[in-house]
Write a structure and sequence with these properties.
single chain, alpha/beta, Metallo-beta-lactamase, Chain A, six-stranded mixed β-sheet, four-stranded mixed β-sheet, 8 helices, globular
Length: 277
Amino acid sequence: MRIHHLSCGSMCPFGGALYDGFSKGLHAHLVCHCLLIETDRDGLVLVDTGFGEQDLQRHGSRIAPFFRVFNNIQPQPALSALAQVRRLGFQAQDVRHIVLTHLDFDHAGGLTDFPHARVHLMQQELETIRQRDSWLQQRRYRPAQWPADTQWQAYQPQGESWQGFAAVKALAGLPPEILLIPLPGHTPGHAGVAIQQRDGWLLHGGDAWFYRGEMYQSQRHCTPGLRFYQWMMAADNAARRENQQRLRALSLNQQENITLFCSHDAKELQRMQALRP
């Protein structure tokens, strides 16, 4: 398998380094870290989609005004997953599967750009979006981003364990090297995606953490802005914190060759793009 690390969206909230830890100006720089996987037999697989082409238009209306303004989402259609798939020489129909960490507006906006793909996610996430029974859920989950005939493939949190986490091992139609790892907290059906390579594992942690300082060190370090955002967006903050602590312990286990990264840290994206062969 060949893996491409993409940013499928740019967000520049007010706060600069108080959010991302490195920006010099008034605005931070956050990414939407997605994966495009070229498999040997099963076509292309996207892990998350970031924003869709319609979301990244200057006057796009599918995203709730609160989040469009709060996150200062940048109108850059060239960052859509579809645009990047085409630049790599593929077409939309070549993407046969999409594996979602969750269905927030900045992770699932590209579903309409790949209407023929099967969409894999946790059953709890699918049940939650069908309810949308709170102010936050109505703004984070945007039905306009999901095709009416989406081929949902939902999974219960069961299967053999992976590094101490419950796992879903048999994703329908996908290589056995791609696993969906339940990590509830940020949303009820939030998950990570683990990918086995020849020399170890990658773990796309989605929004289980937001800042590079939350992994690979014994004491958590997170900027004030992202600490607040994680708290604000958590469906179950206790579960989020527990899973984040378990992931931090995993990142410190030097016996396992596992590389962890999350969805929105620009420095993590740069690190992963630099490591790509």
